[in-house]
Amino acid sequence: MDALAERPSRSNEAASLGTRFLVYPQPPFVPGYERPELVWLPIAPGEIAAGPASDRAYVRDPILTKQPYQAPFLPPYDGLCHSPAEPGPDGHFDHLTPGTRPFMAAHAFACVHRVLDVCEGYIGSAQPWFFQPYYERLEIVPHLLWDNAQSGFGFLELGEDDFGEKPFPFALNFDVIAHEVGHLVLFGALGLPRASGPSEDFLIYHEAAADFISLIGLLHFDTALDRILRRTRGNLLITNELDRFAELSDEKQVRRFSNSLRVQDVGNEVHDRSKPFAGALFDTLIEIYQVILFERGLTRIDPRDFAYIRMEMTRDELERELQVSGRDYELRHYAVKAALADARDIVGQSLMQSWRHLNPDRFTLEDAMEAIITAATAGLGRRYADRIADNFAWRGFS
User: Fold this and answer.
1) How far is it, in rounded angstroms, from Cα 376 to Cα 368?
2) Coil, strand or helix at 38
């Protein structure tokens, strides 16, 4: 009886789980992602107000056409707005109907908080917005008639993809939101250059890190892990949605993580120059995943036997060696899924713990590489620090 008396009530237990939202891990036009996934934000029901609005972020959805923010015109937006997304009687937001304006507002808000939760979990502490104390909260503008998205001093603004037959709001694209929030988190954790303007290496790194944060965020969705692994039968060295960034349609891809570009292969544009660094991070994720699979008896190939496995083995060889039949794969799906989650956490922690070792005023890509290796050695990645170093060296960083 005493044990029963000490058991928390159902209402208290539900509150400890947080507040429910629905989020698309990938845009709903991507096959397999037509339905949103239920996610819990670690905020008690009732503590997120209509908007939605929390102590970290709030939504403003203008009725009239609004121009994107640009200094000196900055938040708050004080014009007429659409009705805010309202929580249900239980304080949750998972009752909102996809395709409606309130759902779009809640989706953008949930994506922002989800990325914050993931990043702060790896960093090990809450991260202040870089624009504090001028602004205490981030303003989210979920929809502008604009073909871009941007984050900046106190704001996140989301336009729409106009490449298809019908414009698609970036507010429903987790990758786009995660990339922009990645910039904000990185500014908060790493800081801003104060002695002079940001160096070219600083800008290149920002793009690569923000890209990779979006990928790490994707791997925190159960839907994504299951679909990626079942579609590939665990072989992540072949093409799949894992190595796509900001999908705009079933065919068009803005960037690929899975590339063979070295430092000497890219041009001068910042996004282009970020590809080798992002590629090295992706190589590290996949190699650690493959090593874990090998060590657990789930694959026959040890990637440590190759200098660069994608260059030394053909696509057909990779598929023949790494893919298994559908029935055999299903027997090991959850073991493979656990391996990918472990690799995700090793690389995610190594990247985000590395920021404490970097100085924005004296920043180089080589320093960023060394900081990741240092963080890996001190954390979950200690057994794989040499693999990280080798992957960056192959890309031309030394």
Assistant:
1) 12
2) strand
Residue 40: phi and psi, rounded to 5, are: -115, 125
Does the N-terminal peptide bond of residue 72 adopt cis geometry, omega within 30 degrees of 0?
yes
Query: Dmax of the chain from CA atoms?
Result: 71
Place of tokens 């249900």: 88
Q: Report which DSSP code applies to 243.
A: G
Tokens of 346: 């090793």
Using 70 as the pLDDT threshold, list the residues of the chain that sit under it.
Answer: 1-15, 238-256, 258, 305-327
Task: Dump pLDDT digits (tens) for 66-95.
Answer: 999 998 999 999 999 999 999 999 999 999
Cβ neighbours for 159, distance < 8 A, ≥ 6 positions apart: 68, 143, 144, 145, 146, 147, 148, 149, 169, 170
Q: How far apart are CA 257 and CA 243, in angstroms?
A: 5
What value does the CA radius of gyration of the chain take, rounded to a whole number of Å?
22
Kindly report the pTM of this predicted structure: 0.90
Q: How does DSSP classify residue 156?
A: E
